[in-house]
Write a structure and sequence with these properties.
Number of helices of chain B: 8
Largest sheet of chain A: none
CATH architecture of the largest domain in chain B: 3-Layer(aba) Sandwich
Mean pLDDT of chain B: 90
Mean pLDDT of chain A: 86
Shape of chain A: globular
Oligomer: heterodimer
Low-confidence stretches of chain A: none
Radius of gyration of chain B: 18 Å
Shape of chain B: globular
CATH topology of the largest domain in chain A: MetI-like fold
CATH class of the largest domain in chain A: Mainly Alpha
Structural class of chain B: alpha/beta
Structural class of chain A: mainly alpha
Strand content of chain B: 15-25%
Largest interface: A-B, 19 and 23 residues
Low-confidence stretches of chain B: none
Number of domains of chain B: 2
Helix content of chain A: over 70%
Distance between the termini of chain B: 34 Å
Distance between the termini of chain A: 29 Å
Strand content of chain A: under 5%
Radius of gyration of chain A: 24 Å
CATH superfamily of the largest domain in chain B: P-loop containing nucleotide triphosphate hydrolases
Number of domains of chain A: 2
Number of helices of chain A: 20
Chain lengths: 527, 231
């Protein structure tokens, strides 16, 4: 059957082309600048190469740990129905929205030198913990990514048809047979993609390396870029390191395109299939222990932030109001830009799908390109471009918003594109036959189907930008404050109570922003 | 083997179903409007849904609390009867041993069963390479190997065209005769019921009614069935 292609709406075409050009310039511009400015490899010292090795080493370990630990957690969640299960599943979503610096504060309150665990160790005569270095980086990465991977695997579990569990029960499969026949094939299809996703996130998680890493043994490439730019002011070296970082990320991104990376935010986490293979007491104990452990691991740092921050709320630093204003402005601007770009690109890609499938695939690739160019690479490139023309430090906030928007773009695109495509396949011909065109078509058929993913992506982009402690550190002069930046500075000065109170404000604002947009997208939503 | 449902009550979030009846040897169809509980009745007999009240016995045994694998029952679902990553041969072989450690004689049995359902050379294929009708044939071959006294089908041929559906129904009838099993078949098609079932149970308005001779029931339908049939 040949579907006669309708000509593309001019608004969709021109806004799509404009967005495409913008994204290409935003990514290619900094890369070209880096290429031109980069010094010869000879400038790199052995400690720079150690940073490359450490980056890959810690990312491999972090991703392996997250994936391996997530399997029993997802397995227990998939086969147990209990009170508080939905709370636990929600808690699993929290680390992704949580500003990194807040999570690190919480982790230090539990695992740090004067944290909860160290106190217990001291009281029984053992030594304090010291998590700075590799162990701290791994701890933080597992804290962020274990929940993410758990959700991915849980989705795999819920996609196994209920008939297959019934069939296995009828055939009398043992738990081992059932694992081999049902669960292992599912895991095999999900784990490689999940591993690469976490690996990529761990290569580009600057804030963790900044706060918990450092020193000759635990410096990542991004941290080395930061030091070259801020302390040595060696632009050539920073550029060279940024190119290395770009190559690493691109290899992973291209690799992960070839094996489908699971989508982290699908629905379907709520259903528990009744199982007939898990009634043994031993399995019940095992699952309970796993779930309690993970709830404690994720929950304790959050409770620590609350407990420390609430009493200190009266004691907020004076600069908090400017910081709130700055953070909100950056977050809202970057969310708006990111979603507008995604919407224009998604409309364009969707319009091309039926006419030029190959071109649409390329445009989609460009939209996901910013996934490969880490925020730090873009930031360094922009710094080099702006440096001769203007004072980069004066432009700290706009550049942060711009880079954050670019980074959230792939997430928004992944959420919007399927909704648009579904809308076209399901109602496109109906709308054509009713001669619904232009604005009325958008308002009556497109808008109602995309407002939910749109609200969700706006909320996500705003939340991610709100908690950003990446690019901003490259650019911000000492007198510019955002909430994560204040927290970082207070923690560096060991003013922990104040830092905790800022953390509370930051978390409250981040979650409120996300909730407002996400809720706005669902309000009065009919499906 | 007779199936006896005594004062059975199945409660689910959105509906409840009562049944107090005996299903005799031979073939019985289950007919009625969708969402009425036809499939739920089969799931309860197979042990996948626990009743809130009453008891289920098959032959002389009360099986109300027996786990699915230990009931003398094979249930074929409407879809997803096969594991997509296993071959036709493996999917069938699961009916002999769920861990697929098959002896030489057992391998022959599997091949024999595939022969009987007309899939002689298809053993090495995967379910995705089969048509809908062929997939259900694999499930039937497995049912043959399991050789349980009760065979239940939950609209397994609903997606097939009329000619193919009749062919499959005849195959099922042959299998039933060969194994002398009790056959229970959910269908929304009165023709199917007439074709192979002596008796028919009407499930409507939250109740599974006593089995009636199929032709008599369809010719002189009670109001609920008449509404469903559009008569």
């Amino acid at each position: 059957m040949v579907i006669r292609p309708q000509s593309m709406n001019p608004v969709a075409r021109w806004s799509g082309l404009a967005a495409l050009l913008f994204v290409v310039l935003l990514v290619a511009g900094p890369l070209v600048a880096l290429w031109l400015r980069a010094s010869t490899p000879s400038i790199l010292t052995s400690s720079d190469w150690a940073a490359v090795r450490f980056t890959l080493f810690q990312a491999t370990l972090s991703a392996s740990l997250s994936v391996v630990l997530a399997i029993p957690v997802a397995r227990a969640l998939a086969r147990r129905s209990f009170h508080g299960r939905s709370i636990l599943v929600t808690l699993l979503g929290a680390p992704f929205l949580l500003p990194v610096i807040v999570a690190i504060f919480g982790l230090l309150a539990i695992w740090g030198r004067s944290g909860f665990v160290s106190q217990i160790l001291l009281s029984i005569g053992a030594e304090r913990l010291n998590i700075y270095g590799l162990s701290g980086v791994l701890l933080a990465h597992v804290f962020f990514n274990l929940p993410l991977v758990t959700r991915l695997i849980l989705q795999g579990w819920t996609r196994i048809p209920v008939e297959h569990f019934r069939l296995s029960a009828q055939l009398g499969m043992s738990p081992k047979d059932l694992f081999l026949r049902l669960e292992l094939p599912m895991l095999r299809s999900i784990l490689p993609g999940a591993f690469l996703l976490v690996f990529l996130l761990c290569v580009t998680s600057f804030a963790v390396a900044l706060t918990l890493g450092g020193g000759p043994k635990a410096t990542t490439v991004e941290l080395a870029i930061y030091q070259a730019l801020r302390f040595e002011f060696d632009l050539g070296k920073a550029a060279y390191l940024a190119l290395i970082q770009f190559v690493i990320c691109t290899i992973i991104a291209v690799w992960s395109l070839r094996i489908a990376v699971p989508v982290a935010f699908g629905g379907g986490l709520s259903g528990v299939v009744q199982r007939w293979d898990v009634s043994s007491k031993l399995l019940l104990w095992q699952d309970s222990a796993v779930l309690l452990a993970v709830a404690g691991f994720l929950g304790a740092p959050l409770i620590a932030v609350l407990g420390r921050g609430l009493p200190a709320l009266s004691n907020l630093p004076a600069s908090i109001w400017t910081a709130i204003l700055n953070s909100l402005t950056v977050a809202l601007f970057s969310a708006a830009l990111s979603v507008l770009l995604a919407l224009a690109l998604a409309g364009f890609i969707d319009g091309l799908k039926s006419r030029r499938p190959k071109v649409s695939f390329v445009v989609e690739g460009v939209g996901l390109l910013t996934l490969a160019a880490s925020p730090f690479v873009l930031g360094t490139g922009l710094f080099i471009i702006i440096h001769p023309i203007a004072d980069p430090f004066a432009l700290a906030l706009p550049i942060t918003a711009l880079v954050n928007a670019a980074i959230s773009l792939p997430l928004a695109l992944r959420a919007l594109l399927p909704a648009l495509q579904h809308n076209r396949l399901a109602y496109g011909q109906l709308s054509d036959s009713l001669d619904m065109q232009g604005w009325s078509r958008f308002r009556l058929t497109t808008w109602p189907t995309i407002r939910k993913p749109l609200g969700f992506s706006t909320g996500l982009a705003a939340a991610l930008s709100m908690g950003d402690l990446g690019v901003i550190t490259l650019f911000a002069p000492p007198d510019v404050e955002t909430l994560p930046l204040i927290m970082y500075r207070l923690m560096g000065a060991y003013r922990m109570d104040e830092a905790a109170s800022v953390a509370l404000i930051l978390v409250a604002l981040t979650l409120t922003l996300f909730w407002l947009f996400d809720r706005g997208g669902r309000l009065g939503h009919q499906t | 083997m007779d199936i006896k449902l005594e004062k059975l009550l199945i409660k689910q979030t959105d509906f409840s179903l009562r049944a107090d009846l005996t299903i005799k040897d031979g073939t019985t169809a289950i007919i009625g409007p969708s969402g009425g509980g036809k499939s739920t009745l089969l799931l309860a007999i197979a042990g996948f849904v626990a009743p809130s009240e009453g008891s289920i016995s098959i032959g002389d045994d009360v099986v109300t609390d027996t786990p699915p694998a230990q009931r003398p029952v094979t249930l074929l679902f409407q879809e997803n009867n096969l594991f997509p990553h296993l071959t036709v041969f493996q999917n069938t072989g699961l009916g002999v041993r769920p861990d697929l450690k098959l002896s030489k004689t057992q391998i022959d049995q599997v091949e024999d069963a595939l022969n009987k359902v007309g899939l002689a050379d298809m053993g090495s294929r995967h379910p995705s390479e089969l048509s809908g009708g062929q997939r259900q044939r694999v499930a039937l071959a497995r049912a043959l190997l399991r050789d349980r006294p009760v065979l239940m089908l939950d609209e397994p041929f609903a997606a097939l065209g009329p000619a193919l559906r009749h062919e499959m129904l005849d195959l099922v009838a042959r299998i039933r005769q060969e194994q002398d099993s009790t056959l229970l078949l959910v269908t929304h098609n009165p023709e199917d019921a007439l074709r192979i079932a002596e008796n028919t149970i009407l499930v409507a308005d939250g109740t599974a009614m006593t089995p009636q001779p199929t032709a008599a029931l369809l010719n002189n339908p009670p109001p609920a069935l008449a509404a469903y049939l559009g008569k």
